[in-house]
Amino acid sequence: MTPPEPRHPTSDDEELLEAETVAILSEYTDAQRLLRIQDELRAGFTQLSHIGKAVSIFGSARTPRDHPRYEDARTLARHLGEQGYAIITGGGPGIMEAANRGAQDAGATSVGLGIELPHEQSLNAYCDIGITFHYFFTRKVMFVRYASGFVVFPGGFGTLDELFEAATLRQTQKIRYFPIVLFDSGYWGGMVDWLRNSMLAEGYIHPADVESLLVTDDPTDCHGALDAVEHRRPRRDRKAA
């Protein structure tokens, strides 16, 4: 079936009226958007303000439950939970589900911060606290503000987005005392080599920017990096986010 042709104003007066209507609707939409942003920030601050020290764990939603990385994420989250950390994820399947599940295994607080997307699913079944956001940036505020650091498992564009946003915030000192751990050297090693051989070689980043990314296959390294930072962090220090 042929789709209908788009409707066009039939007169100058009608065109003027439509333009004014669009302008009014756009202004109204922006006002509503500001209110929604405010509501999302308020909901996040209210529900997460008492979770204590926490770590955000990222990784692909496409990781199947029978994949070794799923079990690695679950084991790591359980280990961190036993050390007193709440676990924060994006609330989806794959690595996120594994980490939330590991948190519940340890009796630690399990947080899922979901995002409204046309093709995404609801929060996984292992979240004690679940918040769904419309805007990526309000969700990102929560990931950084309430975490002592990031542990990043293999993933795609979304995982890289969170990783490099945190790296940028730390490089520019918008956040401090914030370790970024890349779990699975086989996956991340090539990227770190590229950072060193291309970005660093061209002078676009500082050696410390690369050295501060901890690449490991050992869950105890993750806890060690986070614990070292917790001892250095000023009491109730919170990032600029």
UniProtKB/TrEMBL annotation:
GO terms for biological process: cytokinin biosynthetic process. One of its GO terms (cellular component) is cytosol. InterPro entries: LOG (IPR005269), LOG_fam (IPR031100), LOG_family_nucleotidases (IPR052341). This is Cytokinin riboside 5'-monophosphate phosphoribohydrolase. Belongs to the LOG family. The keyword Hydrolase applies. It catalyses: 9-ribosyl-trans-zeatin 5'-phosphate + H2O = trans-zeatin + D-ribose 5-phosphate; N(6)-(dimethylallyl)adenosine 5'-phosphate + H2O = N(6)-dimethylallyladenine + D-ribose 5-phosphate. Transmembrane segments: none annotated. Keywords: Cytokinin biosynthesis, Hydrolase. Its EC number is 3.2.2.n1. It holds the Pfam family Lysine_decarbox. GO terms for molecular function: hydrolase activity. The keyword Hydrolase applies. It comes from Solirubrobacter phytolaccae. SUPFAM superfamilies: MCP/YpsA-like (SSF102405).
